[in-house]
């Protein structure tokens, strides 16, 4: 192998390493085409410095609030306040299980998440297909109706229809016939190849690094500009 080949090989290796480093750091992002950068967080991220995070190119955040009928994320209240104080539009999400009715899960979310002006629409995470630890798992035939009961109760309370976070696997198993909903889709490193006309947020990275967060973090892209994000976040005044 001559020197030119060696140099070319070394340069190619550096390019691959740089690309891999950029992806890990969260720089390999889609908003060159106009989308805005966001994150979603839970207790897995530990203590977050929200001002540092907001200074690292982040424009919005979704924060885990609840799961099932009785679990509250232990960092929700702190993250909810921290994101607001850092000036970030933020919304809360619920991890929907197949173990409790939609009505029960909606009541739990509503009891936990305040209704505030400027918050993003609530989101429901629909990806769980495993068995329940206690009690029966709801049959496939009622998953959509129970989820819709959840959505309708949140819409009545918060004044806006929640968005649906889902994976391709869960979508194809349960949600293919669903119409008229807005989606937040998980599709790592490539644009979503399903619900292409229906997605509002795209989760494209699950192992990024951002200032103010000690652990890897999920990255998302909002489909629109700053004005569209402001319209997306428009909410009634709390208590109205």
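-> sequence recovered:
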């Amino acid at each position: 192998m001559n020197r030119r080949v060696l140099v070319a090989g070394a340069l190619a290796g550096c390019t691959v390493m740089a690309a891999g480093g950029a992806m890990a750091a969260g720089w390999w992002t889609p908003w060159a085409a106009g989308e805005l950068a966001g994150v979603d967080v839970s207790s897995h991220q530990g203590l977050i410095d929200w001002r540092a995070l907001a200074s690292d190119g982040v424009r919005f955040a979704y924060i885990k609030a609840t799961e099932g009928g009785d679990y509250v994320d232990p960092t929700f209240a702190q993250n909810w306040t921290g994101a607001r104080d850092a000036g970030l539009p933020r919304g809360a999400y619920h991890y929907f299980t197949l173990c409790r009715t939609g009505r029960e899960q909606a009541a739990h979310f509503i009891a936990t998440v305040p209704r505030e002006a400027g918050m993003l629409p609530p989101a429901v995470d629909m990806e769980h297909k495993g068995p329940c630890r206690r009690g029966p798992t709801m049959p496939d035939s009622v998953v959509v109706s129970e989820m819709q009961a959840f959505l309708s109760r949140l819409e009545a309370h918060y004044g806006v229809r929640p968005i649906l976070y889902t994976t391709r696997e869960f979508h194809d198993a349960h949600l293919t016939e669903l119409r008229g909903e807005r989606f937040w889709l998980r599709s790592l490193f490539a644009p979503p190849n399903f619900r292409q006309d229906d997605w509002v947020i795209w989760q494209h990275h699950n192992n990024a690094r951002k200032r103010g967060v000690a652990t890897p973090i999920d990255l998302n892209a909002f489909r629109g500009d700053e004005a569209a994000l402001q319209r997306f976040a428009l909410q009634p005044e709390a208590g109205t």
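Residues 31 and 224 are 9 Å apart (CA to CA).
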